[in-house]
Amino acid sequence: MANTVRKKSLFSRIETREDALKTVRDAAIGFFVLAGLQGLAAFLLAPALLIDATLLLLLGAILMRWRSRTAAILLLLFSMLEGIVTLLNRLGLMSQGGTNVLLAVIMIIAAVRAVEATFKLHGRFAATMVGGAKAVRATVGRSPAPGSA
User: Fold this and answer.
1) 30, 118, 120: which is closest to 79 by C-alpha?
2) pLDDT in tens, 72-85
3) What's the CA gap between 71 and 7, in Å, rounded?
4) C-alpha to C-alpha distance for 80 and 99, rounded to whole angstroms
5) By C-alpha distance, which of 119, 61, 53 is closest to 82?
6) Cβ burial, residue 51 (10 Å; 0-12/13-18/19+)
């Protein structure tokens, strides 16, 4: 039977370190695209959106470069706030903010996946690093096994 090659996407299961790295990269690229859209909207519609664009760009860069759990969590909180504002605007309870609920949902899903991937990279998949910080942490503070010296 032939091996079937499964295409990995942002919504695939994170089963290996490579899957987690790809998920972080894809999420960061998604936030870069969103920052670009926000920047364009700031230029055309409301200059205050430039703050959102800058924040997305900065957190996306930190996420991509350092695979930061903090950046992933901040992106999730920011995405959730954007989603709430979008929903309130769509319901007519606010006059500022976007109305694209689908984009807000995708943004939240990407942020959730980034959080999952970064925590797996710093947790379960950190032990697979060759000579990395996890290997050093595992040996610091341990007493030698009895009979070895």
Assistant:
1) 30
2) 999 999 999 999 99
3) 27
4) 14
5) 53
6) exposed
CA terminus-to-terminus distance, the chain: 52
Are 11 and 17 within 8 A, CB to CB? no
In this structure, are residues 20 and 126 in contact, taking their beta carbons and an 8 Å threshold?
A: no
List own/partner pairs for 34-40 with CB under 8 A and 24 or more apart.
34/103, 34/107, 35/60
The average confidence (pLDDT) of the chain is 86
The b/e string for 73-85 (b: 16+ C-beta within 10 A; e otherwise) is: bbbbebbeebbeb
pLDDT at 130: 54
Phi first, then psi, for residue 89 (nearest 5°) are -65, -40
Opening angle at CA 27, ends 20 and 105, nearest 5: 120
The CA distance from 114 to 104, in Å, is 15
Mean pLDDT of 85-96: 92
User: What tens digit of pLDDT does each residue of 34-53 get?
Assistant: 999 999 999 999 999 999 99
- Rounded Cα gap, residues 20 and 17, in angstroms: 5
Q: What is the pTM of this model?
A: 0.81
